[in-house]
Amino acid sequence: EAGVAQSPRYKIIEKRQSVAFWCNPISGHATLYWYQQILGQGPKLLIQFQNNGVVDDSQLPKDRFSAERLKGVDSTLKIQPAKLEDSAVYLCASSLDVRGYGYTFGSGTRLTVV
Amino acid sequence: GQNIDQPTEMTATEGAIVQINCTYQTSGFNGLFWYQQHAGEAPTFLSYNVLDGLEEKGRFSSFLSRSKGYSYLLLKELQMKDSASYLCAVRDHQAGTALIFGKGTTLSVSS
Fold first, then answer.
1. How confident is the model at residue B27 (pLDDT cuts 50, 70, 90)?
2. What distance in Å separates residue A81's CA from the closest CA in chain B?
3. Across chain A, where does the E strand assignment appear?
4. Which of B45, B97, B103 has its CB closest to that of A42?
């Protein structure tokens, strides 16, 4: 089975610019998660979708971050405008159902804000 | 809220055994996970414990004590390729299915 696909793999932008990341979960996985992993730390949950609805976005900085999952499959995460502290790896994960079975991560997008 | 603690760094030699500890505090414990993450790569699943006791899978074992809020990951017959970050994560009823991660333990294996 194909894994969780993410693009781009790397992105360098200047502060105050905008950036978007894309995630395609494993086929049939209803739940999708976006995590932010700052260098030297564990992943931190930003937002969780169940199909195309938001389950938890309590840690998403909504003044600059937005995410959507149209049609309950692919998802995009956007940052506008970016700050230096947004430099991190953005990981997408998906799981089969509400119980979290088959939790699998994508390879991530490494964002550098200069 | 949740709190997960694990050592920042550990070192060991090839062929040795290493134990990575994890303590956690969570109000609605619903499972503990260990992930391995090589530099620049995605975390990959190692083990899952929801009941007390030891789960063994090849060279890797994971232990859980729910009453103590404690888990450890045991790696036997260490190999150079085991050099990686090891992430302890818990699932909490209040957080649904999302995993809450610790900061990770960087293990360096030397020859």
1. confident
2. 25
3. 5-7, 10-13, 19-24, 31-37, 44-50, 53-56, 65-68, 75-79, 88-95, 104-105, 109-113
4. B103
